[in-house]
């Protein structure tokens, strides 16, 4: 009975996540296809980060 909460937590942590709910590593072309643009270091103020273009670039979108 005490193992059940641990099992549920493990299922949540290791279950596959649906695409589009978290920032995703993608190419610059994929970022542009999603209506965004690549920006180094950070996105400009007022613009949200929606993914990654590379290790040093973020995909930003209004």
TrEMBL record:
Residue ranges constituting the Beta-defensin-like domain according to the UniProt record: 29-61
Gene3D superfamilies: Antimicrobial Peptide, Beta-defensin 2, Chain A (3.10.360.10)
GO cellular component labels: extracellular region
Single GO biological process annotation from the record: defense response
Protein name (Swiss-Prot/TrEMBL): Beta-defensin-like domain-containing protein
Source organism per UniProt: Ficedula albicollis
UniProt cross-references to InterPro entries, sorted A to Z: Defensin_beta-like
């Amino acid at each position: 009975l005490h193992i059940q909460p641990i099992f549920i937590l493990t299922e949540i942590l290791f279950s596959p996540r649906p695409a589009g709910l978290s920032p995703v590593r993608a190419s610059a072309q994929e970022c542009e296809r999603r209506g965004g643009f690549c920006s180094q270091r950070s996105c400009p103020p007022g613009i949200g980060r929606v993914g990654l273009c590379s290790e040093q670039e973020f995909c930003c979108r209004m």
